[in-house]
Amino acid sequence: MIYAVNAITSDTANTAVQSTSTVSDFSSFLGENQSLDSIFQKAADTYQVPVNLLKAIGKQESNFNANAVSKCGAQGIMQLMPATAASLGVTDSFDAEQNIMGGAKYIAELLDQYNGNISYALAAYNAGSNNVKKYGGIPPFEETQNYVVKVINYMNQGVEVPNTALPAATQSSNTVQLPKQAGDPIDNAATFSFTYEDYLEFLLLFEKILSSQTKENEDAKEQTQQWDSVYDLYETSRLPSFTLAQMLDL
Predict the structure, then answer these.
(1) What are the beta bridge partners of residue 175?
(2) What are phi and psi of 23, to 5 degrees?
(3) How far apart are CA 210 and CA 189, in angstroms?
(4) Is the pLDDT of residue 6 over 70?
(5) φ/ψ (deg, to 5) at 80
(6) Torsion angle of alpha carbons 23, 24, 25, 29, nearest 10°?
(7) Angstrom distances, CA of residue 36 to CA of 46, 66, 78, 164
(8) How far is the C-alpha of 104 from the C-alpha of 54, rounded, in Å?
(9) How far apart are CA 42 and CA 78, in angstroms?
(10) What are 223-237's pLDDT values in tens digits?
(11) What pLDDT is stored for residue 16 in this prediction?
(12) 112 near 105, Cβ under 8 Å?
């Protein structure tokens, strides 16, 4: 039975489920060229997650392809959905370091949620926490059940990560810094990220506004034409008013 994997845990997982970092985004991880191995190790150390577990997830999710995009829109090595990535502080899911850091933070939160149960955490990573709650464990989805087994097998056997150097991450040019407002309790200037998804949403909203304005202009033009027609009809229907004297002069 697939549910037998529910009991699979590791000593390291039982003692390393708390996420002690308060990192809100990953700009602090910008640095020199580095390998995927070093990034996975950094992520494991930062979020106190077994490094073999992180590598196993990366192997199963994308086979370490930083540019991978799933049919449902998950992105990068750890296959983060755009909304999930944003909630984790990831501004560029195709940046290997940000993506791995985000995935590590996410799985650390799930391990904490399920008291170190790796199988439940992996099931939630794949199918969502709501489904784990709904079914009281690993959901009866073939994809999710196979996912849990494969990742745990990779973790136990060890995974070889491609030994390729990655360029240093650069801060996204879409990050906008706002000046500190009076009374703002935060010492540092506030920042927000304008992602590609935000850009697409902006275009859709802008198109709607233009369409609305065009419709209003057309309606106003039509109304003006209607009033002009009424006025013309009124003018052409007016009969000249003559006095008796004027009529005799005719």
Answers:
(1) 193
(2) -65, 130
(3) 34
(4) no
(5) -90, 135
(6) -10
(7) 15, 10, 12, 7
(8) 7
(9) 15
(10) 666 666 655 655 555
(11) 39
(12) no
> Tokens 């990831």 belong to which residue?
90
- Position 238 confidence tier, pLDDT thresholds 50, 70, 90: low
- Residue with the two structure tokens 């037998």: 4
Cβ atoms of 17 and 108 within 8 Å: the answer is: yes
Do 168 and 32 form a contact (C-beta atoms < 8 A)?
yes
Catalytic residue among 32, 61, 109, 143: 61
Kindly report the three-state secondary structure assignment for every residue of the chain. CHHHHHHCCCHHHHHCCCCCCCCCCCHHHCCCCEEHHHHHHHHHHHHCCCHHHHHHHHHHHHCCCCCCECCCCCECCCCECHHHHHHCCCCCCCCHHHHHHHHHHHHHHHHHHCCCCHHHHHHHHHHCHHHHHHHCCCCCCHHHHHHHHHHHHHHHHCCCCCCCEECCCCCCCCEEECCCCCCCCCCCCCEEECCHHHHHHHHHHHHHHHHHHHHHHHHHHHHHHHHHHHHHHHHHHCCCCCCHHHHHHC
The answer to whether 90 and 120 are in contact (CB under 8 A) is no
Tokens of 214: 């065009």
Known catalytic membership, residue 61: yes
Contacts of 143 (CB under 8 A, 6+ apart): 126, 127
Q: CA end-to-end span of the chain, whole Å? A: 113
Q: What angle do CA 220, 223, 224 make, to 5 degrees?
A: 85
